[in-house]
Amino acid sequence: MDLMNPKPFDLARLRRETPGCTQRNHLNNAGAALMPASVRDIMIEHLRLEADVGGYEAADLRTAEIAQGYENIASLLNAASRNVAVVANATAGFIQALSSFELAPGDVIVTSRCDYTSNQIQYLALKQRRGIVVRHAADHPEGGIDPQSLREIFRRERCRLAAITWIPTNSGLVQDVEGVGRVCSEFCVPYLIDACQAVGQIPIDVKRLRCDYLSATARKFLRGPRGVGFLYASDAALERGDYPLFIDMRGARWVEPDRIEIEPSAQRYEDWEFPYALVLGQAEAARYASQVGIDVARDRAKDLASRARDGLNAIDGVRTLDRGRSPCAIVTVAIDGWRADDAVAALREVGINTSASLREYAVYDFDKKGVTSAVRISPHYYNSEEEIDQLTVAVAELVASKRSTRRSNTPSMRFS
Q: Top-level CATH class of 11-34+294-402?
């Protein structure tokens, strides 16, 4: 099937190909999207094959399909298959890339104030254990990293790496990762992008981004399974000899008692043991996304998110929290009187899936916004306008129910 020629957009067909649509109003695609039937089926088929012939033997029988999966992923990135590694998840890939750098006390990692919580934790762990310095570049007034701030940091400090989350987990903000790439290229600073929330939602061209590494997961807007992801490693990274701190027999060969040979491709970042049903599911998700068209998916999902923001902003007692010049298909809201996790549970009871973002996921951002939690709503191209409207009605009912409870609990005034 030609991955470069997407099918015409047909919402009814896409929903038929998404069995979960008949069960729930799924607006948690930034957490884990509903998988197309073809993704589900290929994984079930492989598990059955493993049960019938054995795990090793089943993988051998699927060698061509596994290899095609690298091509499918590469097509999403404007990259070659040799630059793609399959990893357990976006964080695992991010850590593998991060571990390629022999950081010494005083070395600087530059990041953003909106980077993903696990990444921020890793930077702080490196600070404690290796004595590195963590710098957070300044934001634009409207939100998101300011590449000019990065340039100023590069001029005055010994920067070994810039690591930026493209879209934070807690917000619809889209950071200027291309602008950061230009500055990193100018100063020859290696560049790592966490594209966990971008892949499947935003067209990606690693050549335009000028990144050395880009990590992503299958389960979010790509609509693949949980427990698998991928890492892009550039030719420049491979040619300068980068490899992960803990490399295994997939990434290197033990050729002499005191010598190893590093795998020439990005597979040096892989582990030998794979859950091949998930690997094949991710490959099919990448193929399916290409057939839908990432630009089509982006425009449709953004339109639905905009509809959600408009509807939620019209509700007294609801505040949307997303910043940036052009928010993506992640909508975050604070609902008066509701903790986010309680609101998510209440919405789930009426068949609407959302998720909660907590302050510990985004300390800088949530402290600035004056909130401790937010409900995250993330539509995708297979959602309908009716599902968005159902959400806004349900949120309005949450606000009304809390106000009704407050009134009933208020003591009446008595005058003598």
A: alpha beta
Q: Which CATH architecture has domain 38-291?
A: 3-Layer(aba) Sandwich (3.40)
CB 388, CB 331: distance < 8 Å: no
Q: At what angle do helices 276-292 and 37-53 cross, to 10 degrees?
A: 160
Tokens of 101: 């750098």
DSSP string, 88-114: SSHHHHHHHHHTTS---TT-EEEE-TT
Q: Name the region of 43 (left: φ>0; alpha: ψ -120 to 50; beta: rest).
A: alpha
Task: Report the C-alpha gap between 243 and 11 in whole angstroms.
Answer: 43
CATH 3.40.640.10, the chain: domain bounds: 38-291
The SS3 call for residue 70 is: helix
Map tokens 């009426």 to a residue.
Answer: 350
Strand partners, 108: 133, 159
Query: Per-residue pLDDT tens for 58-97?
Result: 999 999 999 999 999 999 999 999 999 999 999 999 999 9
Full-model pTM = 0.93
Give dist(CA 220, CA 26) in Å, integer: 12
CATH 3.90.1150.10: which residues of the chain? 11-34+294-402
With H, G, I as helix, E, B as strand and everything else as coil, classify residue 21: helix
Calpha distance 198→297 (Å, rounded): 11
